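Q: Structure for this?
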Amino acid sequence: MIKHSLSAIALLSGLLATTVSAAQWHMPTPYGDANLPTKIAYQFAQEIKANTGGELDIKVHSGASLIKHPEIPRAVRTGQVQMGEIFIGIMGNTHPVFKHDNIPFLATSYDDAERLWAAAKPEVEKQLAKEGMTLLYTVAWPAQSLYTKAPVTNLADLKGLKMRAYSPSTSRLAVLMDTTPTTVQVPEIPQAFSTGIIDAMITSPSTGVNGQAWDYLSDFTDVRAWIPKNVVVANSKSFKRLDKKTQQVIRDAAAKAEAEGWKKVRIQAKKDTKALAENGIKVSQPSPELMSELSIIGEVMVKEWQQESGPEITDILNNYAQ
Ligand code: PCA
């Protein structure tokens, strides 16, 4: 009898131990499995599972399958999910610090983009923390260039076109380019082009390849106007509830993911630009005229951005200038 109840207790406490310590977290991501940030998210989750001995199991829900992209920040903030991936630019209306990510010609090389991130990170981290989110890592996209249905030599060639936008800053950019902004999420890009909802877009070679841009577009003008990033965040309360060791496992996996992202994005950019050309898109360098017109717009956007808020933006720009 005694023996029996002891083993029952042992069994029960064993069960309790597993239910208490092994946790499943949900991590919605906006983009599909073919994208570099999504691949990195899967590796990140796997590494955490391995290094916690299976005690923290993060389920990645890619391609906005669990939560639509614009809803992911709120879902993480409110704890509906414990973790999530977000394109930084879509939070531009929440606070201007997030706009550092979509300003044309502020950082156009990967080295400069890394420096811009180092400059912006403290302010971004602070703002996320205010919203109850803990910053874990970022992954950059390849530089953003112009896709059209005809060759482009200057902005006049784009006048009046319907331009895809994916953030408040890119909507503003479209207006300054004398085009009409239309917000379209990545999965809807092919249909938006084929039904005439949009005529042109500025995005990475990767997003063009994923959406088979050659089916509905002909020209890729490699303006490389900015290098945006996704950010992976945790709900701060959920993160704080973890023991210190698990938090460290997550931090280590995050640091590795971020380093991997910066390394791989450079390779991915080349590979996908080549794939565009191989599939029949005409890849060309921008004319000096187009670049100078776009640079002027970039300067206007930096000024507008600075005027939007006080010390944070000046801090970012000063850090970046150093
Ligand atoms: N692809 C995503 C974000 C940036 C990019 O290269 C998009 O077009 O929405």
